[in-house]
Amino acid sequence: MASERGKRWALILGASSGFGRATAIELAGAGYDIFGVHLDRKATLPQAEAVVEAVKARGREAIFFNVNAGEAERRGQVCGAIGERFAQDGTPGALEVMLHSLAFGTLRPYIGERAVSQAQMEMTLDVMAHSLVYWTQEIVAPGLMGEGGRVFAMTSAGGRVAWPSYGPVSAAKAALEAHVRQLALELAPRGIRVNAIEAGVTDTPALRKIPGWERLVEDGRRRNPSGRLTTPEDVARAIAALSDERTQWMTGNVIRVDGGEAIAG
């Protein structure tokens, strides 16, 4: 794997809730120390603190940054701190996994009084799609991640279907999948694998911001042949499994983790 001394680190973008939270805890249980990036105000900061404690309870280190992952300056600061830690430990390239799970965007229609603005559209695509490219550049160029590394990005069925007021996020998910394919192509010679994870309908804080989310939950539960919704833990376990060195030939994919929901029609 990427680490020279067996020290294994994962970087989780969006670490305080939903898929990011579950994956941080699951990977800690699998032996990874965790760098977490999250954006929480005072009211929700206990969520991030709880993740830190859960990681530590599994005997792993947790270094969390409460910053806006969409800001270039903050991205540089976080990756600089990671580089300093690796230099201190003498473990170059110890970052083995990065999960992009940023769910901050505008939910507005394209047409009408509440129509999405250009600034809102650009912000949504920048945070939820383009930042995957920028974070990947930031960890690859200085050698924070090397051969054997895994990059995962969270997508959804919304990248190919239309829901009311979901247009900006749908566009971001479609762009995210395109970025995954391009990054997979360019990073294959370096031995770094890039895949998108398409979860089934999952009751997360991000889902509950979508207008009509209750209907999405009801429909997802009804259609899923496994008889229930996907959970963040289902996705986290899949990411941990896909981080195994035996999956090194898998790259450039959109991998469904949904209990069969997508095939049920």
Write a compact overview of the structure shown.
The protein has 265 residues and is an alpha/beta fold. It contains seven helices and seven strands, in the order βαβαβαβαβαβααβ. It has a seven-stranded parallel sheet with strand order 3-2-1-4-5-6-7, sandwiched between helices.
Oligomerization status of the protein chains: single chain
Structural class based on helices, strands and sheet pairing: alpha/beta
Looking at the overall shape, the CATH architecture is 3-Layer(aba) Sandwich
The arrangement of helices and strands along the chain is EHEHEHEHEHEHHE
Q: Using DSSP, what is the number of strands?
A: 7
Q: Roughly how many Å apart are the termini?
A: 39 Å
Q: Could you characterize what this model shows?
A:
There is one protein chain. The termini are far apart. This protein has helices spanning 18-29, 45-57, 72-89, 118-140, 167-187, 213-223, 232-242; strands spanning 9-13, 33-38, 62-66, 95-100, 150-155, 193-199, 254-257. Helix 4 links the parallel strand 4 and strand 5 (150-155). Strands 3-2-1-4-5-6-7 form a 7-stranded parallel beta sheet, sandwiched between helices. The protein contains 7 helices and 7 strands. With 265 residues, the chain is an alpha/beta fold. Helix 4 packs parallel to helix 5. The protein has one domain: 3-Layer(aba) Sandwich (Rossmann fold), CATH 3.40.50. Mean pLDDT is 94; it is low at 1-5. The longest helix has 23 residues, at 118-140.
